[in-house]
Amino acid sequence: MQLFNHTSKLQARWVTTRAQLLLPLHLASCINSSHNSSSPSPSGITQLLHTQVQPFSCCSSSSRSSRRWQHSTATAAVAEAAAAAAAAETAEEAASGGAAAAEDEQQPAGDWTVLNFYHLVDIADPEEVLLRHKSFIAAQGLDSICGRIYISAQGINCQGGGLRQHTEAYVSWVASQPEFAGLFHTLWPARGPMFPKLRLKLKPSLISLAGGMQAIPCTEPGMRATPLDPQQWRVKLAHADAVNAAVEAGREEASKRVVVMDLRNDYEWDAGHFDWAPRPDEEVFAETPGVGEAGVPTPLKGTDPDNTEVMMYCTGGIRCDVYSALLRQKGFKNLYTLHGGVQHYLREAGSEHWQGSLFVFDGRMAINPALEGQLKEGEGLPAAVPCQLCGEAPAALPHVNCANIDCNELFIACSTCKTKFHGCCCEACQSAPRLLRPIKISGGNYGTWGNYADIDSLSPVIASGRKHEGRVARRARRREALQAKREAVLAQRRELRAAVKAAVRAADEAQAAQQAAAEAAAATRQPAVA
User: Fold this and answer.
1) Which distant-in-sequence residues (6+ apart) come within 8 Å of 344 by Cβ?
2) What is the per-residue pLDDT across 28-61, written as a single tens digit (0 to 9) for each?
3) Percentage of the chain with pLDDT > 90?
4) Helical pair 126-139 and 164-176, crossing angle rounded to 10 deg
5) What's the distance, CA 429 to chain centroid?
6) For domain 109-202, is the CATH number 3.30.70.100?
7) Distance from C-alpha of 260 to C-alpha of 450, rounded to nearest angstrom
């Protein structure tokens, strides 16, 4: 079965090729024409891409005028090529069924699904299991299945999707395999393909965690936290709300506090979270204290492992099952997890005790089953935090990546700020020395960065985007910047604590001195005993 329109794909490739060929030729012709014409005028091209072009410096006014024309025409050339690149991205997304793909008449909305499941179990021969999965998908012609399906010696983890008949056939077959008996899964309707391709492969760890997960006994059910279904979780949250409110009011001891812990990335918390769950200090879950590390997540610091009730949740449940086994090793006894994760809770129990919507790692980017059918046309899903640029207006999901190709920060903003900052996360990124991408006012993923800049000949005019620096290096650079920011915040906190302690100490000393003076004065006034 042909899933995508191959004509559209060819058109998309042609537009991309045309964009790559057009820019250097047009740029060269425009600059050459500036030398042969006394009064050229740049063509009126709508700028879909905000490009930082370095101005030329010169002495004479005539040279300055000529340079202005070169600058203006070069910008127009960049904009025209950018428009072609943006068109290439749009055509490519439409052809491949990306996150922003519109409903196709040949692909009814109800036919497509998103499939999520995981199963933690010891697997003696992961390679044999992998080959079995590949063989079944190929033999049954389940060619619409895409997404991430990882297999390891500790089980399987799937975030995928495809046509309903394909996903249902696949998950039924998986559940029939001896090692995956009792498999729990969820199926969600989708407007089209939500993943670009299938990544079915072996992984040493099913989730990213410092030190890996091979040394964590997560395949032993007794080591994992007690699972609560959505209704039980809601009751437990009501209990946590009552107890924690009493602690805040001073009616209960601090040791009675129920810890509600979010085991997701910090930007996922911004989209939505449960009451009493603080924002994770870690930018990504992989930074959470893992195997071989003495620390625990911030919400657990200073708590009593023997008596503190800990409620853990994540999107689908696998992070909690794995990490709860690690916390068992650290001595925590009263651990509870949300069976099926947040997405299952919102579908089954509604949005009680939940703020905002749910970030998901597929083309939808954000969902809120509790609000299905209630939003008006054009409205975005609500976020749990206000606009992260102005800090005032309500933010609308989904997240958007910064248009600065070198930043790529994932953030939430209101539509006004997205337009005001040209799709960037801050003022600095608007004047970044590298190429900027088209604004994503309605959110969504960007295409491959090469769609926006991949031409070495443009380096004298604009930076040509990412070249030899890989994703790992860029991520490391962003983490270094984040770490520096956190260290600065911690330093300020330490200074504040020191100042508070000094002030308290000075106040205590002053009070003690006053008390001593008062006692001395009282002693002098007291008559001597005969």
Assistant:
1) 186, 230, 317, 338
2) 344 344 444 433 333 333 333 333 333 323 333 3
3) 42
4) 140
5) 19
6) yes
7) 42
Among the CATH numbers 3.40.250.10, 3.40.50.300, 2.30.30.240, 3.40.50.360, which is that of 221-359? 3.40.250.10
Confidence grade of residue 497 (pLDDT, cut at 50, 70, 90) = confident
Q: What is the per-residue pLDDT across 272-313, written as a single tens digit (0 to 9) for each?
A: 999 999 999 877 787 777 665 667 888 998 899 999 999 999
Per-domain residue ranges of the chain = 6-96, 109-202, 221-359, 387-444
Q: What pLDDT does 369 receive?
A: 76
Query: pLDDT per residue over 198-238, tens digit each?
Result: 999 999 999 988 778 888 999 999 999 999 999 999 999 99
Give the Cα separation of 360 and 352 in Å (integer): 19
- Told to judge if 314 belongs to the known catalytic residues of this protein, a careful annotator would answer yes
Q: Give 179's Cβ-side CA count (13 Å radius).
A: 21
pLDDT, greater one: 528 or 57: 528
Count H helices and E strands in the chain, helices first: 11, 17
**Residue whose pair of structure tokens reads 């072009």 in the numeric block:** 53
184 touches 117 (CB < 8 A): yes
Q: Which of 158, 218, 314, 402 is catalytic?
A: 314
The residue ranges of DSSP E strands in 173-234, in sequence order, are 185-190, 198-202, 226-228
DSSP string, 449-479: GGGT---GGGTTTS--S--S--HHHHHHHHH
Distance from C-alpha of 273 to C-alpha of 218, rounded to nearest angstrom: 25
Q: Can you give the pLDDT at residue 430?
A: 85
For the record, the structure tokens of 515 come out as 């008390």
Decide if 162 contacts 146 (C-beta within 8 A): yes
Q: Is 433:408 a contact under the CB 8 Å cutoff? A: no
Angle at 83 between CA 80 and CA 88, to 5 degrees: 130
Pairwise pLDDT comparison (51 vs 497), residue with the higher score: 497
Phi–psi pair at 419, nearest 5 degrees: -75, -45
User: Angle at Cα 164 formed by Cα 161 and Cα 166, nearest 5°?
Assistant: 75
Q: How many alpha carbons lie under 13 Å from residue 257 in its C-beta half-sphere?
A: 18
